[in-house]
Design brief:
The protein is an alpha/beta fold. The chain has helices at 3-8, 38-47, 58-61, 66-79, 104-118, 139-152, 154-159, 175-185, 206-213, 248-258, 292-304, 317-338, and strands at 23-27, 52-55, 82-89, 122-126, 163-167, 190-195, 217-221, 224-230, 233-239, 263-266, 274-276. The chain contains 12 helices and 11 strands.
């Protein structure tokens, strides 16, 4: 799907039957420690047969200078790769927001200009992290603040022919909350960057996340996750593709059905377990509005899981860099050979 077709496709069309297959992509956060420049990233992604490369943060691009972006675009075109670019938090009240880079509105407009230059149909962004679910501002307040920012730049984004893809990021929002943000900001220019690993940090079944957000999906981050019961609650660990217990094969099949033509971009991150202490009353302060039926779906995943040992601790930084690359390459092989992406 080229840029013109992408921009002309209504978000709701993602739920309609279509012949356009998903496009295999790579989110460069997967190889964040490799020390590659933008051109090296593109060359490696071409070897992995990626059709889309997702520069999810400015640091992977190496800057937003116009001449540099034009060179990156030319190199990608030579390799037959489509580009997507992104930024970090656009919520002024989030703990993740960096005011030293300017107002949220100005940061978005800087990225809109960069996206036009580099040929990206979207700008990916996020609200914050799970830390924003606790504190003086409730998650509903952060959502309102993000909506206000997005509405302020609506005309400029539309004039540029772009869309803003808000990610369900690091446990910040559950699917119904991100859906609310998109609809209140304006689904004519705001959609979702659907992450398959982050829902479990927010007590959510990723299949529910997909079902809820499919009509709004502009792009994706895909990784596998394991979840299991522990004495203190639920342990969640991100894994290589194929090594979790969330049903990544069925998730992929449904993604292909519900989000035809969108990028299926690997964001491989392998972690030790994060324990969600669901038996502590104060834990639920951040999830008072979570419906019991939604939590039950998440709990069923944990009930089906078995303890996963923590990945071996690399001996040094160089070993960690090698391990990161090995994890990514294993996920790429699984995508191609098992999932057929």
């Amino acid at each position: 799907m080229d840029r013109r077709t992408f921009l002309a496709t209504p978000l709701a069309a993602a739920t309609a039957p279509a012949a356009a297959p998903v496009r295999f992509g790579v989110d460069l956060f997967s190889v964040r420690s490799q020390g590659w420049n933008a051109f090296q990233h593109l060359d490696q992604c071409a070897r992995w047969k990626a059709k889309v490369v997702h520069f999810s943060e400015i640091r992977f691009l190496g800057g937003l200078e116009e001449d540099h972006l034009k060179r990156v675009r030319a190199h990608a075109e030579k390799l037959g790769i489509e580009l997507e670019i992104g930024m970090r938090s656009v919520c002024p009240s989030s703990k993740a927001f960096d005011i030293t880079q300017g107002t949220a509105e100005q940061q978005i407009l800087d990225m809109v200009r960069a996206a036009r230059t580099i040929g990206s149909p979207i700008v990916r962004a996020f609200l914050g992290t799970m830390a924003d679910r606790a504190g003086p501002v409730p998650i509903e307040g952060h959502i309102r603040n993000t909506v206000k920012v997005l509405r302020a730049v609506r005309s400029q984004v539309l004039d540029a022919g772009l869309r803003i893809a808000i990610e369900n990021h690091a446990g910040d929002m559950q699917a119904r909350e991100l859906k609310t943000l998109i609809e209140e900001a304006g689904p004519d220019f705001v959609g979702a960057c659907l992450d398959s690993g982050n829902p479990l940090w927010a007590l959510e079944d990723p299949h529910l996340t997909l079902e809820t957000l499919a009509p709004y999906v502009l792009t994706s981050h895909v990784r596998d996750t394991a979840a299991w019961r522990v004495p203190d609650g639920i342990a969640v660990a991100w894994t290589r593709l194929g090594e979790g217990n969330v049903g990544i094969r069925e998730y992929t099949r449904r993604f292909q059905e519900l989000c035809p033509g969108r990028a299926y971009s690997l964001e491989t991150i392998v972690t030790g377990p994060r324990v969600l202490k669901i038996y502590e009353p104060r834990f639920w302060d951040a999830y008072r509005r979570t419906p019991a039926w939604e939590f039950a779906r998440f709990l069923a995943i944990a009930e089906s899981g078995k303890p996963l040992p923590s990945p071996p601790r690399p001996a040094d930084k160089q070993a960690a860099v090698r391990q990161e690359l090995e994890d990514m390459e294993a996920s790429v092989r699984f995508s191609h050979e098992v999932l057929g992406i």
